[in-house]
Amino acid sequence: MPFYEPRDEGEAAEIVGAAAGRSERLRLVGGDTMAGIGRPAQDEATLSARALSGVTLYEPAEMVISARAGTPLAEVQAMLAARGQMLPFEPMDARALMGSAGEPTFGAVAAANNSGPRRINAGAARDSLIGVRFVNGRGQAIKSGGRVMKNVTGLDLVKLMAGSWGTLGLLTEVTFKVLPVQERVATLVFRGLDDARAVAALAAALGSPFELTGAAHLPAGIDGADARTLMRLEGFSDSLAYRIGELQKLLKRFGAAEILDGEPGVALWNTIRDVTPFAGTSEAVWRLSTAPTRGPALAAAIGRAMPARWFYDWGGGLVWLAVASEGDAGAEAIRSALGQHGGHATLIRAPDAVRAAVPVFQPLSQPLMRVTQGIKTAHDPAGVFNPGRMYAEV
Predict the structure, then answer these.
(1) How far apart, in whole angstroms, are the C-alpha atoms of residue 177 and residue 180?
(2) How far apart are CA 229 and CA 133, in angstroms?
(3) With contact defined as beta carbons under 8 Å apart, do 91 and 116 qualify?
(4) What is the pLDDT of residues 169-228, one digit of tens each?
């Protein structure tokens, strides 16, 4: 199978243009750490962004950074950390969960809209993405956005590319806004709450003026420990001491909270970010999004239908779910429960046969599918980029 690794955007455009001319279907990859997400590949060749590497712009005072798509994410994060800055949205490292090797890349963060626990405070990756360069399916190099956030009219290509999973174009460069690293990070840990009370506590905290940057719940046994309800706060030490005290008063009906500082708290949030309780197992893993207050009822409904394990992020609005990978990996029961409680589901990890047989991403209504197909045709008329990765019809 042909493997293409362009050294610059111009070479990438030539490769794509030639592939479009002969209707050669391309699998787009960066570090290949999330290759198992989506429907199985229907490609004839691989187009890699790994050689498109290097930071092209970093202005700490303007809090903006640009890098080519194949730049290792760790390289960007190290450069930011040296200046006391960070990516706001806390992208996950999927390698443990997916059992993959390789190196996560900067472009893949945008392509997957890769957003972790801090999303409840800072928004998703797409909310910080302010500029992209990419090669479309005609072999044309396109630039959209810039170095500052601004309102736009018409089709916002920057936001469109975020979460498109390489189906609309090969990202060659991305630009993100960044934020300062906070002086202190502390996590309140409430122990022994059941799911419903835990989500009630998270809702009360998120509805307060004390600005959580993380809100998660690990049910009993999920990682071999007792149930823990977690609330992260960040800021200047004096401000944080006050906010922690006031939050403890607000939540006293849920019991006393332990305070975690330093590395133990960081490690705990990394566990949630990277879904490590489900790493190294043969289970299928689903990512369910719903209204936070409906999370416990949704999980309970699925738990009545089949053996399942789960935990919560985003105040209960994100449910990570592990079930047996046999059959349809619970797809029918999960989407039936979602029909009752609201939300949508993405199958993150499952054997190829399962991912080929069931919808991996949330099924679209016919009107939305027509819009999706129209966008795909406009950007990739020959259908060369990651065909069928998100939907069989696209």
Answers:
(1) 11
(2) 41
(3) yes
(4) 999 999 999 999 999 999 999 999 999 999 999 999 999 999 999 999 999 999 888 999
Contact between 369 and 393 under an 8 Å Cβ cutoff? The reply is yes
Q: Residues 191, 255: contact at Cβ < 8 Å? A: yes
- Where do the domains of the chain lie? 3-180, 184-273, 276-357
Structure tokens at 250: 């607000």
* Length in residues, the chain: 394
Q: Tally Cβ neighbours within 10 Å of residue 224.
A: 7
The Cα–Cα gap between 81 and 195 comes to 35
Residue written as token pair 């975690």 = 260
Condensed to tens digits (0 to 9), the pLDDT of residues 33-68 reads: 999 999 998 899 999 999 999 999 999 999 999 999
Domain 3-180 is found in CATH 1.10.3720.10: no
Q: Which residue has the tokens 């990570």?
A: 320
Q: Which fold has domain 276-357?
A: Alpha-Beta Plaits (3.30.70)
What are the φ/ψ torsions at residue 321 (nearest 5 degrees)? -130, 135
Order of strands across the sheet with 212-218? Answer: 258-261, 184-191, 228-235, 212-218, 308-313, 318-323, 284-289, 344-349
